[in-house]
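Annotators were shown the component list below and the corresponding predicted structure, then asked to write short factual statements about the assembly.
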Amino acid sequence: MKRTEREESSAAESSAVVTDGAGVDWRGSASSSVTVTRAERLREFYEETVLKPMLVAWSDSRTRLGLLIIGFYVSLALVAVLGLWRAPSTSQAPRYLTLFENMQYPLGTTASGTDLAALIIHSTPDILLMVTSGGLWATGIAVLVGTVAGYKGGSVGRALMSISDFVMAIPGLPLVMILAITFNPKNPILLGIVININYWAGLGRSIHSQVLTIRENNYVEASRTMGVSTPRIILKDVIPNIMPYVTVNFVFAARYVVFASIGLFFLGVLPYSDQNWGVTLNFAYNGGALFSWSAAHWLLVPMAAIIGLSVGLILLGQGMDRVFNPRVRTRLTGESESTASADEKDTGMTEVL
Amino acid sequence: MSNYYVRRTARVFATIFAVATLTFGLIRLLPGGPFTQLRAQLLRQGVPASEVDARISNLQNIDPNAPLWRQYLDYMGAVAQGNFGESISLGEPVAQVIAEAVPWTVFVVLVSTILMFAVGIFLGSLQAYWEGSRFDKAFSGLSIGLMSVPFYVVAVISLYVFAYQWGWLPTAGTVGTNVDKELSVPFVLSALEHSLLPIFSYTLGGIGGQALAMRGNSIQVLGNDYVRVARLRGLPDRRIATRYVARNAILPMYTGFLLLLGFRLSGTVILEQIFSYTGLGYYMFAALKANDYPLMMATFLIITVALIVGVYIADLTYSKIDPRISAGGSDEAY
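Structure shown to annotators:
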């Protein structure tokens, strides 16, 4: 409740600033654009896009946890980039140390005497890059195809949807395997895109069906009669409506990248230059960690890294729903417990692992 | 209306045709091309160099010296007849390998997907029924936890614990080596024993997502006026729960079920590898490793066709199951 009051008062303040400067503010935007300084506009932009979403996100315990977890992985990546932890190399430590046996190597070591903590930390930057690029690619293409097809309709829409249907029909993992062997992408950004090469299709299809109803709204029709161009209508009238859905699905797409990439690294299909979580898992699996309890940590540590990241992503995805949902956002209360319920329905359209 | 069905059916064939074309192109992208491996292998076996090309075209139904369009036509013609050539690494006709592999994969995927939905729907509806209770909170957390565990992690851990450490279940294969491949009690028991771990690990991770979806749907349905009216009419709880709530909550998940069946087929590439379970995914991966292009193309095509048919059935039957949706939909261009 406290926050609600604060927000109202801040809203009142900002409107007061506008009216004070311009006298009677009956001409609306024309006069306000003169008086609002750049600093004020920046502050408002900051409040609208950073502060408020963060406040809403922080108010929910699950999202808070998600943010903390993702923050933890980002700081791991920073540790690796800044070189605060030793780089992994063979026989840098005694072999087969278990968890917390030697506090120099808290996560233990592998059969070749490599520090597991170093392995995990130093592959985090690449994995985060890959996850982000894969998620951006999948949601970006899906939004483009879904909104254009949904808004334009007719033969353009049909053509785009036929393409999506075709792409959706190609099995994801086998396709990625063939592409990985063919193009041998080692760059994590490229790898993220390759892994989600056809993820956008299902997402685009469900965005399409949402846009079909959005385009019937009055304000869209008003824009159309005013002669606003199609790209502008899509950008200003359509996309804000689907943003919550898109962000939630960005997170799910990112999770798919994590699962699929680690799975394929584990199989040894994807090319790699340094060991990462999946490759470590592969080495552990093939290196006999299955046969003895003493080497179990070699399997468990990379697994924990994967599960931790995806827990963070899922919690964040569920919280994103509130951040973007204007009704929840203005109330700032944690009333609707059934987060992401409306969005969860369509996840059947996209691939899962 | 019938026009829609005709168009939809035509699109199935168009998509299969397009994917077959795509696989033809993809194979030619791969390092070494489709014939290098086979040629080397034949030469190693002592086939005279002059006969190699003839042998290749005999095995793969494609003449390697013909122009590309000719190869394409030959390939498509052979695929249309269900003839995928001969597997390079196994030395058997691809169609036979696939015919032996498909039942195992279908069994695992079908059973695990059905189980996943059944358990998910059950848990989700209980959660919705007791929304906000401790049970609900605990299982929501559990669902999120389950969603975060990739199935291959479950697979490796369960293999480690149940098969290697405790030795309760077999570590690899589809049936025991000493069991005859015929429909008998020991065969079925052995098959079940071998499939237990793959099914378990493929089911567990998926339950979370389904439970959360079912929970969300049910809560939404519970808030509807017709449920309140049904209560006011004094209908028994059981009837409300099954006829009013469950039906409407499960409905949106139906399409997802058929699509998931298709998607999960491609996940078997990883699953079957871990358990050395000789199904479609296993052979797909083995073929990829061995540059066995005929086998790889065929498995790729089969998985694709399954997906396309799943989407097709979902599209066609959804309007039958949910009368509110009219098939086709009417688009008008802006």
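Statements collected:
1. Residues 225 and 246 of chain B are 15 Å apart (CA to CA).
2. Chain B touches chain A through 68 residues (CB under 8 Å).
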